[in-house]
Amino acid sequence: MSARKAKPGPGVRAGKAGDDRGSAGAHVAEHGRRGTLGGPLGLLVLVAAIVGAVWLLLPPSAPSSAAVDPGANARPAPAVGDVAPDFTATTTDGRQVSLASLRGTPVWLTFGATWCAPCRVEAPDIEAADDGRADILAVYMGEDAATVSGYADRMGLSFGQIPDTDGTLSSLYGVRGIPVHYFIDADGIVRATQVGILGPDAIASHLTEIQAAG
After folding, report:
1. Is the peptide bond before 78 cis (omega within 30 degrees of 0)?
2. What residues are paired with 111 via a beta bridge?
3. Alpha-carbon distance 41 to 52, whole Å?
4. The pairing of beta strand 107-112 with beta strand 96-98
5. pTM as predicted
């Protein structure tokens, strides 16, 4: 008696159909993933990867100040509560200024240099704050009038620019790092000092302080 060939049962047929549907679903899903990564999302992923790679290659953050040699005749830097050392100097536009002549007006005295990268970073914020709340004077260590004037023109700076060619003013204030800032009230008293870059919020706070104190 010959053996009959077994017919596939319903379960077998259903399983094959299920496999076909599963394969089709997997194909559609894979196609969907490829389509998504090839569209806007894929572009964003690529940009994020590039930005991350560039960030890893960048050098560490630049310092907020630069050390300088104050010279053998440098005095101790004035502290908060001290009377600001008086001086007379001429700005690049020919104006003669002294702290004594500015009594009755708050003064923001800042020391820097044209080569100082942190000074360049904060310069636009200082310019933006030159709105009458204080007389702003910037002293440039060891640099002549032509150098300072050219720098101020390139940077668009309109507040008082003082070349300190022989370093007299920098020694008077014991400058050892730039930029360094002295906020002086209308009575000539130092109310705040800071070495390093100042941002808009800190600038506003210090200017308010010397206006209120004077």
Report:
1. no
2. 139, 180
3. 16
4. unpaired
5. 0.69
